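Recall the central idea of this unit: under ordinary conditions, the amino acid sequence of a chain determines the structure it adopts. In this exercise we apply that idea directly, starting from the sequence alone.
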Amino acid sequence: MLLIGAYPVAAIRSSRSFKQWPHYRTAFWILGMVCVAVTVKGPLAEQGHTNFIVHMIIHLLLGMLAPLLFALAAPVTLILRTVNVKTGRRLSRLLRSRPISVFSNPIIASILNIGGLWILYTTGLFSAMQHSALLHVLIHIHVFLAGYLFTISLIYIDPTPHRFSYKYRTLVFIIALAGHGILSKYIYAYPPEGVSRAEAEVGGMLMYYGGDAIDICIIIVLFYQWYRTSRPKRVLSLG
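Accordingly, the structure predicted from this sequence is:
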């Protein structure tokens, strides 16, 4: 609730000094926070411990939809517009730092995101997380952060000092899509330890089709940005 309320307050403060902050970005932020909230607290979160289908819904909300909504909300831009100059310069230096450069590389972000999911669902890690509260929390944090890092490595909404070409990002995205799709089919055929075949089949289909639906949104944003930067500028006729 604190994070949900802080964003509109920052948006109002920013709008007083700069151009009006878009209301749709505030809506994206609130929707993203709701996605996170329902996955960590409430009936959905509780059922996720025992029902693989619900767990996969949580995976889609926490690891894919919420990161996309947060990326579209442009929180870093809003922070830079609201903090003082000294803090803004520190944040800018952080964004230009070497670690950020490494982790914002689409290949590294894809390995952390898709590779982490392969480890989770093809080893005993998934079963272990159901018996350890600490491990359960850590994995959920990783799923969200890796999903967010992956999303912002592909679509540049916030300031991004370390930029990669559209061709490079598209190629990496295609490979990541293949990795995610193959994993969903693997889950369908070979259920994770402790998961029934019936739940694995439904969960695998949710991962496949639900993931594709969210990935289509990323594709639209990515290609729209590519189109805007590459379209020829109109030449005014002087005749």
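The CA atoms of residues 58 and 184 lie 15 Å apart.
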